[in-house]
Predict the structure.
Amino acid sequence: MDTPRVGIPEQLADRMTMAEQHEYLRARFARPLTRRGMLRAGAVTAGAAAGTGLLAGPARAYPGPAPSPGPSPASSPELLVSSAAAAVDGKHVAPFGRHLAFGADPRTQMRISWQVPFAVRRPYVRVGLAPWDLGLKLEAEVRTLHTPPLSKKLPAVDQVYLHAALDNLRPGRTYYYGVGHDGYDPADPRHFSGIGTFRTAPERPEKGGKAEKFTFTAFGDQGVSYQALANDQLILGQNPAFHLHAGDICYADDSGAGKPTDVYDARVWDQFLAQTESVAASVPWMVTTGNHDMEAWYSPNGYGGQSARWALPGNGFDPARAPGVYSFVYGNTGVVALDANDISYEITANTGYSGGAQTAWLDRRLGELRRTRGLDFIVVFFHHCAFSTTKAHASDGAVREAWLPLFEKHGVDLVINGHNHIYERTDALRGTRVGRKVPIGGTADSTRDGIVYVTAGGAGKSLYDFPAPDSYEGHVKDLESVDSYFWEKGRVKHPEQVEWSRVRYTGFSFLAVESEPAARGGRPRLRVTALAENGARVDHFDVVRPARRD
């Protein structure tokens, strides 16, 4: 069973929810909060220096509630770090692992996150319209994690994560930024190599902007590996406006198989963020939660670590409980991130934790997006597959039961999953049946033919097997059907013979999606391409909708 069970005997882990795993680990490994030499992590009240012409309004950091806060330091021993580290002179501490994320409005909001190896004094971010003029200075919020040695093979780990929220930015502008702290000023010429950039989303046409084409990329199941790094560099070459990560982010819990020898190595997060920085320091890295991202030590819901490491939009049904559930609009495309751990029939450690709140929110949010003026497409991404045929995980029947009716009700155009470590793409589906065959290079009208579902889980972890031959661009082997299965309630595998498995590729890969607004008299179009780690194209197809009349 593919669930995180760090330090828990196998016979117990098979029956434990995330909350029960958390309680077990705390009872076994937690140390008293009163021990000397500990530094509580707290949100730093943000301030701003004047920055002429940078923002559309007054500079602010975290107005109102901080986005996706982690557990309270007062009640969580993991949110502590040794005060001995604070004695290190800041000039000897260099930031690393920078990663960007949009706020709920990509036109005006950007979140900048990074890491330091030791606690530092007064961390901050500088922002400006030129690399030599970083006139805006904002203090950062500190979120720290303490992980005890959950195995005799591992040391205790203290991690310090820093976050700054930029609001009131101007749409369609390129900004420069640097992160620092007392003793390390990014504006110092010695540190110019650490200056990064980001670009806000353009203003939408209905607000006076111009419709623009843009590209985004997507994959799931990345981890730390040569293949993961290779994919990152190819992604950077697509010049994406943002990147979607469909969960199973770094695999700090690598096996997830419930074996007694399982260990949770928090240091893998340091490796992952260092690996990803070359892209995520300039491309917003929008993640959601997979089964390997449920980390029982930090919080009862398994997402305390996620909340500490990422600053994602806080507009989901409950950002504290579900940091990987949110939405945003970029140009003519709405994007919705979901947490399928909440409904999965296959992996049940967190099944039902929202009590139906996530699905109710999804219904409301999809309806709001479909009614939004100027919006052509809705893209939904999450971890567990609605449709896949691999021998490892195949399809999750809970996703089909709970969410497919909502996708069809509100006219979702494209669904992207991970979980299965391959590339697989369906025809256009109405429910679970083929509405229209979509061969490589084909086109689907999502309003007439149905929804195309893509599994893009070849980001870097070891690959899975199909029960049928690969069939991809240049190597097409069309089959009438493929024997597979889907998970039913009670972790039962229900055999099925499917006709919708149109493209299968056993290799490392990612998606590049170009969103093209309608030309005069034309139709808006998503041009979807799957690229292998060597840059070869393995699939491409288009999704179109009728031209809007608003």
